[in-house]
Amino acid sequence: FLGVILNESDRMTHIVQDMLTLSRFDSERDELKLSWFPFGEAVRDIYNAVYMEAQKHSHTLTLDLEPDLPEILADRERVLQVIMNIVSNSIKYTPDGGHIDMKVGRTDTSVWLEVDDDGIGIPAPDRERIFERFYRVDKARSRQSGGTGLGLSIAKEIVDRHHGVLQLVDKDGPGLRIRLELPIGGPGHEG
Fold first, then answer.
1. Residue 122 has what pLDDT?
2. Is 122 helix (H, G, I), strand (E, B) or coil?
3. CA-angle at 68, arms to 66 and 69, nearest 5°
4. Which end of the chain, N or C, is surrounded by fewer C-beta atoms within 10 Å?
Protein backbone atom coordinates (compact mmCIF):
# COMPACT_ATOMS: atom_id res chain seq x y z
CA PHE A 1 0.00 0.00 0.00
CA LEU A 2 2.85 2.36 0.79
CA GLY A 3 4.22 1.85 -2.75
CA VAL A 4 0.83 2.74 -4.25
CA ILE A 5 0.59 5.83 -2.07
CA LEU A 6 4.10 6.96 -3.09
CA ASN A 7 3.41 6.38 -6.79
CA GLU A 8 0.14 8.28 -6.65
CA SER A 9 1.67 11.16 -4.69
CA ASP A 10 4.46 11.39 -7.31
CA ARG A 11 1.86 11.40 -10.08
CA MET A 12 -0.14 14.14 -8.35
CA THR A 13 3.04 16.19 -7.82
CA HIS A 14 3.79 15.99 -11.55
CA ILE A 15 0.23 17.04 -12.41
CA VAL A 16 0.43 20.06 -10.07
CA GLN A 17 3.85 21.02 -11.49
CA ASP A 18 2.48 20.76 -15.04
CA MET A 19 -0.53 22.90 -14.14
CA LEU A 20 1.71 25.54 -12.51
CA THR A 21 3.96 25.58 -15.59
CA LEU A 22 0.97 26.10 -17.88
CA SER A 23 -0.37 28.82 -15.60
CA ARG A 24 2.96 30.67 -15.73
CA PHE A 25 3.02 30.32 -19.53
CA ASP A 26 -0.53 31.70 -19.81
CA SER A 27 0.24 34.68 -17.58
CA GLU A 28 3.54 35.36 -19.40
CA ARG A 29 5.36 35.11 -16.05
CA ASP A 30 7.64 32.29 -17.11
CA GLU A 31 10.79 33.82 -18.52
CA LEU A 32 13.37 31.69 -20.28
CA LYS A 33 16.72 31.56 -18.46
CA LEU A 34 18.99 31.66 -21.49
CA SER A 35 22.61 30.51 -21.36
CA TRP A 36 25.07 28.83 -23.70
CA PHE A 37 25.46 25.07 -23.22
CA PRO A 38 26.55 22.08 -25.33
CA PHE A 39 23.45 20.55 -26.91
CA GLY A 40 25.11 17.17 -27.43
CA GLU A 41 25.97 16.89 -23.74
CA ALA A 42 22.39 17.75 -22.77
CA VAL A 43 21.05 14.96 -24.98
CA ARG A 44 23.66 12.53 -23.62
CA ASP A 45 22.58 13.46 -20.05
CA ILE A 46 19.00 12.48 -20.87
CA TYR A 47 20.16 9.28 -22.59
CA ASN A 48 22.10 8.32 -19.46
CA ALA A 49 19.17 9.25 -17.20
CA VAL A 50 16.63 7.06 -19.04
CA TYR A 51 18.91 4.17 -19.99
CA MET A 52 18.02 2.06 -16.93
CA GLU A 53 14.29 2.64 -17.46
CA ALA A 54 14.66 1.45 -21.06
CA GLN A 55 16.54 -1.62 -19.81
CA LYS A 56 13.68 -2.43 -17.40
CA HIS A 57 11.46 -2.77 -20.47
CA SER A 58 14.10 -4.73 -22.44
CA HIS A 59 14.29 -1.88 -24.96
CA THR A 60 17.29 -1.25 -27.17
CA LEU A 61 18.12 2.44 -26.71
CA THR A 62 20.71 3.95 -29.06
CA LEU A 63 22.26 7.40 -29.31
CA ASP A 64 23.86 8.68 -32.52
CA LEU A 65 25.54 12.05 -31.93
CA GLU A 66 26.94 13.97 -34.88
CA PRO A 67 30.50 15.07 -34.01
CA ASP A 68 31.35 18.68 -33.15
CA LEU A 69 27.86 19.79 -32.18
CA PRO A 70 27.78 23.45 -31.14
CA GLU A 71 26.72 25.11 -27.96
CA ILE A 72 23.26 26.67 -28.16
CA LEU A 73 21.69 29.66 -26.44
CA ALA A 74 18.61 28.32 -24.67
CA ASP A 75 17.05 27.58 -21.31
CA ARG A 76 18.94 24.38 -20.48
CA GLU A 77 16.48 23.10 -17.85
CA ARG A 78 13.52 23.63 -20.17
CA VAL A 79 15.31 21.96 -23.10
CA LEU A 80 16.13 18.99 -20.86
CA GLN A 81 12.46 18.87 -19.84
CA VAL A 82 11.39 18.67 -23.50
CA ILE A 83 13.93 15.97 -24.38
CA MET A 84 13.03 13.95 -21.28
CA ASN A 85 9.34 14.13 -22.18
CA ILE A 86 9.91 12.95 -25.74
CA VAL A 87 12.21 10.05 -24.80
CA SER A 88 10.12 9.00 -21.78
CA ASN A 89 7.02 8.83 -23.99
CA SER A 90 8.87 6.57 -26.43
CA ILE A 91 9.93 4.27 -23.60
CA LYS A 92 6.45 4.28 -22.07
CA TYR A 93 4.49 3.65 -25.28
CA THR A 94 6.81 1.10 -26.89
CA PRO A 95 5.97 -2.52 -26.01
CA ASP A 96 8.69 -4.35 -24.08
CA GLY A 97 11.62 -5.38 -26.24
CA GLY A 98 11.28 -2.43 -28.62
CA HIS A 99 13.81 -0.12 -30.20
CA ILE A 100 14.27 3.59 -29.52
CA ASP A 101 16.84 5.50 -31.55
CA MET A 102 18.02 9.01 -30.69
CA LYS A 103 19.81 10.87 -33.48
CA VAL A 104 21.32 14.33 -33.02
CA GLY A 105 22.71 16.67 -35.66
CA ARG A 106 22.89 20.24 -36.89
CA THR A 107 22.11 22.47 -39.82
CA ASP A 108 23.76 25.82 -40.51
CA THR A 109 21.51 27.62 -38.02
CA SER A 110 20.01 24.96 -35.75
CA VAL A 111 20.53 21.73 -33.86
CA TRP A 112 18.08 18.86 -34.03
CA LEU A 113 17.11 15.67 -32.24
CA GLU A 114 15.00 12.89 -33.70
CA VAL A 115 13.58 10.18 -31.46
CA ASP A 116 12.40 7.19 -33.46
CA ASP A 117 10.65 4.19 -31.91
CA ASP A 118 8.82 1.09 -33.06
CA GLY A 119 6.07 1.47 -30.49
CA ILE A 120 2.31 1.73 -30.82
CA GLY A 121 2.46 5.04 -32.72
CA ILE A 122 -0.37 7.54 -33.11
CA PRO A 123 -3.32 7.00 -35.46
CA ALA A 124 -3.51 9.47 -38.37
CA PRO A 125 -6.72 11.21 -37.13
CA ASP A 126 -5.07 12.01 -33.78
CA ARG A 127 -1.71 13.25 -35.09
CA GLU A 128 -2.81 16.89 -35.47
CA ARG A 129 -4.04 17.08 -31.89
CA ILE A 130 -1.24 15.52 -29.82
CA PHE A 131 0.19 18.91 -28.84
CA GLU A 132 -3.16 20.14 -27.46
CA ARG A 133 -3.56 20.44 -23.71
CA PHE A 134 -5.19 17.44 -22.02
CA TYR A 135 -5.48 15.57 -25.32
CA ARG A 136 -4.83 11.87 -24.97
CA VAL A 137 -4.99 9.49 -27.90
CA ASP A 138 -6.28 6.56 -25.90
CA LYS A 139 -7.82 7.36 -22.53
CA ALA A 140 -7.47 3.80 -21.19
CA ARG A 141 -3.81 3.59 -22.22
CA SER A 142 -3.08 6.97 -20.63
CA ARG A 143 -4.71 5.97 -17.36
CA GLN A 144 -2.65 2.78 -17.32
CA SER A 145 0.60 4.67 -17.88
CA GLY A 146 -0.30 7.72 -15.78
CA GLY A 147 -0.54 10.18 -18.68
CA THR A 148 -2.35 13.49 -18.24
CA GLY A 149 -2.25 14.86 -21.76
CA LEU A 150 -0.07 17.79 -20.65
CA GLY A 151 3.50 16.67 -21.35
CA LEU A 152 3.63 17.26 -25.10
CA SER A 153 1.63 20.49 -24.90
CA ILE A 154 4.14 21.85 -22.36
CA ALA A 155 7.03 20.63 -24.52
CA LYS A 156 5.53 22.37 -27.57
CA GLU A 157 5.07 25.61 -25.61
CA ILE A 158 8.70 25.53 -24.45
CA VAL A 159 9.96 24.87 -27.99
CA ASP A 160 7.74 27.62 -29.43
CA ARG A 161 9.18 30.08 -26.88
CA HIS A 162 12.64 29.16 -28.17
CA HIS A 163 11.41 29.78 -31.75
CA GLY A 164 12.08 26.12 -32.47
CA VAL A 165 10.10 23.29 -34.03
CA LEU A 166 8.58 20.21 -32.42
CA GLN A 167 6.77 17.94 -34.85
CA LEU A 168 5.89 14.40 -35.84
CA VAL A 169 7.78 13.11 -38.85
CA ASP A 170 6.23 10.60 -41.24
CA LYS A 171 8.02 7.27 -41.32
CA ASP A 172 7.62 3.80 -42.74
CA GLY A 173 6.70 0.99 -40.40
CA PRO A 174 5.34 1.00 -36.86
CA GLY A 175 6.02 3.54 -34.16
CA LEU A 176 6.64 7.23 -34.07
CA ARG A 177 9.36 9.68 -35.02
CA ILE A 178 9.37 13.07 -33.36
CA ARG A 179 11.76 15.88 -34.26
CA LEU A 180 12.97 18.74 -32.10
CA GLU A 181 14.82 21.61 -33.76
CA LEU A 182 16.27 24.62 -31.91
CA PRO A 183 18.08 27.70 -33.24
CA ILE A 184 21.74 27.74 -32.23
CA GLY A 185 21.74 31.47 -31.45
CA GLY A 186 18.63 31.41 -29.27
CA PRO A 187 15.12 32.81 -29.81
CA GLY A 188 14.98 35.24 -32.69
CA HIS A 189 17.99 33.71 -34.47
CA GLU A 190 16.35 31.21 -36.78
CA GLY A 191 18.71 32.15 -39.59
1. 78
2. coil
3. 70
4. N
Question: Are the beta carbons of 157 and 181 closer than 8 angstroms?
Answer: no
Average pLDDT, the chain: 84
pLDDT of residue 127 exceeding 70: no
Please tell me the least confidently modeled range out of 16-20, 81-85, 170-174: 16-20
The full DSSP string for 36-102 is EEEHHHHHHHHHHHHHHHHHHTT-EEEEEEPSSPPEEEE-HHHHHHHHHHHHHHHHHTS-TT-EEEE
Q: Read off the amino acid at residue 180.
A: L
Q: What is the average pLDDT across 133-148?
A: 53
Q: How far apart are the C-alpha atoms of 103 and 92, rounded to whole Å?
A: 19
DSSP string, 91-117: HHTS-TT-EEEEEEEE-SSEEEEEEEE
**CA-based torsion, 32, 35, 36, 42: positive or negative:** negative
- Residue 26's pLDDT band (boundaries 50, 70, 90)? low
Residue partners of 117: CB distance under 8 A and separation at least 6: 90, 93, 94, 98, 99, 100, 101, 175, 176, 177
Give the pLDDT score at 140. Answer: 43
Q: Which pLDDT score is estimated for 120?
A: 83
